[in-house]
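Page 42, continued from yesterday. The earlier attempt failed because a stray header line got pasted into the input along with the sequence. Redoing it now with the clean sequence only.
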Amino acid sequence: MIITIDGPAAAGKGTISAYLAKKYGLAYFDTGMLYRAVGLQMVLEHHDLKDERAASSLAGALSFQKMNELAKHPDFRSDIGGQAASIVSAYPSVRAALLTMQQNFALNPTFPDGKPANGVVYDGRDTGTVVCPHADLKLFITASAEDRAKRRLHDFALKGIDTTYEKVLADLLERDERDSKRASAPLKPAPDALLIDNSGMDAETFISTTIPMLDEKIQMLLNKNH
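This time it went through. Structure tokens are written below.
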């Protein structure tokens, strides 16, 4: 079974993706990690983020092992990593280089320990429109920019990252603009995606109101696949 969860930054995709993966025993693939890995590697190797050729070259050579190594860097989840990821993800050549990695995972999904899984939950920007357009269930999670900025600021504070609400909001709006207007795979819901707006909700409320809507459908899909 394949579930795709798309939406803008800090909308709650990771929250619902991780919950569904754990509840139904599915693998979890945060596709944004691939772009963060390429973006951060560009920064660490002092490449100009406007250099699409360099970004494409790094994307083509990226492995899951390298991605996991870069994920340990303190800037991987910072606004530095996020902005770099947003910039390099706009390059068609980078997206093309990473697409096969993402699609192949659906063919043989595994847990972090290498054990096979019966399906996968994808968390990303274009997983329902490009990566897995034939997914069994597609969600598009969104929230107001102001709510998303508050959540991201809270996450940064927990990690000891010093920034301001104004900067976080400006960065999110800039990323939204770039993601929605990129020529390759612009951020948008799949035609058959279920749209969920969780503005004004905390994580607990989001989960408690969303899961009941999905339970019956997911159980039917699991029974069908078995």
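Notes: The CA atoms of residues 9 and 37 lie 16 Å apart.
Reminder to self: strip header lines before submitting.
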